[in-house]
Amino acid sequence: MESTRIMLPPLPNSTTVLVLGILSIVACWCIGIVGLAFGIIALVMSGRAAKVYMENPGQYSETSYKNMQAGKICAIVGTCISSIFLIYMLFYMLIFGTIFSLIPWSNIMSGM
Predict the structure, then answer these.
(1) Alpha helices in the chain, H assignment, sequence order
(2) End-to-end CA distance of the chain
(3) Angle, vertex CA 60, rays to CA 57 and CA 63, nearest 5
(4) How many CB atoms lie within 10 A of CB 11?
(5) What's the rounded Cα separation, in Å, for the pair 54 and 44?
(6) How far is it, in rounded angstroms, from Cα 1 to Cα 24?
(7) Neighbouring C-beta atoms of residue 52, cutoff 10 Å
(8) Can you give the pLDDT at residue 32?
(9) Of 6, 12, 5, 3, whose CA–CA distance to 56 is shortest?
């Protein structure tokens, strides 16, 4: 007997969630803002996609659901790393801003 496979359509935005999740990890070193934006967008889209899948799981392929879950995990990791890096950069700028504001620039400039 020949087995027939029914090709189910992919879950909407599952590939987009995966791509944005991966990009959130890759772009987390861009002062944290770019990776944070990609991660948040991917998390919102994954929430909507999971809701659509849970309403009728037999209508979409399981592979696309697993891709969406992998993208969600990547987005969580990218969002966490981006947040930590953004906080680090803000702290770094605060410290060096304070140090440079304490330098007597008027004395340095008038001595030249």
Answers:
(1) 14-26, 33-55, 62-101, 105-110
(2) 94
(3) 105
(4) 24
(5) 16
(6) 47
(7) 18
(8) 81
(9) 12
CA–chain centroid gap for 27, Å, is: 8
The pair of structure tokens assigned to 46 is 């994954």
DSSP-based three-state secondary structure for 1 = coil
Side chain identity at residue 106, one-letter code: S
Six-digit token string for 78: 């990218």
**pLDDT digits 0-9 by tens, 76-108:** 999 999 999 999 999 999 999 899 888 887 877
Q: What residue type is 41 in one-letter code?
A: I
How far apart, in whole angstroms, are the C-alpha atoms of residue 48 and residue 77? 19
Q: What is the pTM of this model?
A: 0.83
Determine whether 96 is exposed, middle or buried from the number of CB atoms within 10 Å of its CB (0-12, 13-18, 19+).
exposed
Task: Report how far residue 41's alpha carbon sits from residue 32's, in angstroms, rounded to the nearest whole number.
Answer: 14
Count of residues for the chain? 112
What span, in angstroms and rounded, lies between the C-alpha atoms of 67 and 10? 10
